[in-house]
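Project channel, design review

CF: Before we commit to the Mycolicibacterium confluentis constructs, I'd like one complete example in the thread so the newer folks can see what an input/output pair looks like. Taking DNA repair protein RadA.
RD: sounds good, go ahead.
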Amino acid sequence: MGRSGTKARTQYRCTECEHVTAKWVGRCAECGTWGTVEQAAVLSSMGGRAHRAIAPSSAAVSISSIEPDQTRHYATGVSELDRVLGGGIVPGSVTLLAGEPGVGKSTLLLEVAHRWAETGRRALYVSGEESAGQIRMRAERTGCTHDEVYLVAESDLDAVLAHLEAVKPTLVIVDSVQTLSSADSDGVTGGVTQVRAITTALTSYAKTASKPAVAMVLVGHVTKDGAIAGPRSLEHLVDVVLHFEGDRSSSLRMVRGVKNRFGAADEVGCFMLQESGIECVADPSGLFMDQRPEPVSGTAVTVTLDGKRPLIGEIQALVGLSNVTSPRRTVSGLDQSRAAMTAAVLENRAGVRLGERDIYLSTVGGMRLTDPSSDLAVALAIASAFADLCLPSSAVVIGEVGLAGDLRRVTGIDRRLSEAARLGFTTALVPVGVKAAPSGMRVIEVATIGAALQELLSIATNPRRKPTVVTPAPRPELKVVDGRPKRPGTGDNG
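CF: and here is what came back for DNA repair protein RadA:
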């Protein structure tokens, strides 16, 4: 019998979920995505052979003999980014920062490189999308010029690795990983095969580079659905995955941790993108609240958790008689189905007649509230607008509303109340079960939506004064005399 060898066989792989099938199909059977199954050639053994042991490249060591300082965080100087990273960047780590075009990824990372260089460490900024002159212009505008920040406009992987050997940086920023290409890999630039090969090579360099250790930050594009472009395995290759989010109509930007091998994976950092650069926002709660000198009916303040970070948000409601058969239910910044459910609970369990009323709900500052803990604030904002009562500006409302009219506890209630107390709120309306109240805060526990409305009546301020409507005096009617209009009391020539 002839000796064993290898031959090429054909298989088909989905570029989204990596599902493998023996024949081509138009729709992946695993993830259901259309047009993502591509042909891939693999090598298979003929006859099979036994694997033999080879000499390892490094010896196994005891876990207690490894120095813990090898994974120590180094602060980037950007406080909100350090918060999300768990204290800073770890040498030898690979971080993937993904976001939509124009959200401010390059501006943020140029700020990181500048702060890194100010501490005496060297940074290399690799751009495959812009020229070095364009990056220099942005650096002049944002004040991020430093002699220890090196720029290179390159899209070939081998050339980038050569620059790393020549510059010897401790921080490398690659903007973006989809623009690099490798001659050793098949596929087009930005394709699945190329992106995986580029990420693997850069990760290997960061892990195996000699002293000083190199920290990699890779910029990734996102698809129209907001997911990171490329295979899901790309997120498994790196140590940290961050999403950079923001609305084009607002200057507020958020960096959200999705994966972090060196810290918590649910932290959020807040920034303000300005013409002069990007600024950290240590206390973003003021951005989501309407500043008024006096309370106004139809408003309620709640505390939501974005990851582990408590944020103060304000909900506004407007209730009026409907002039159409089907009353309007318009919602902005809230979950429309939960808002409709809360309105139904108010009507059926608390007797607030909203069937013939238009209801408009909105959050302040473009905040998005999807946490069920904002249900009670929605209910009291609607009731406040309906009864024209004003909740005190020093009161917060937290709780989930059930279909039976009961109020349920939410997670992190202690952290929410502590944040509210820190910002000066003195009264909190919450479900039953709070173990300890913050110092200086009065906590009112209620079990049902009806009890919450009773507390609203007791703590609400006086109804705001109705505006005085001035009715103009009626004008005297005109009479027609001899074919000409005349006012009463005037002469023929009047």
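RD: helpful, thanks. The CA atoms of residues 475 and 487 lie 10 Å apart.
CF: The radius of gyration is 31 Å.
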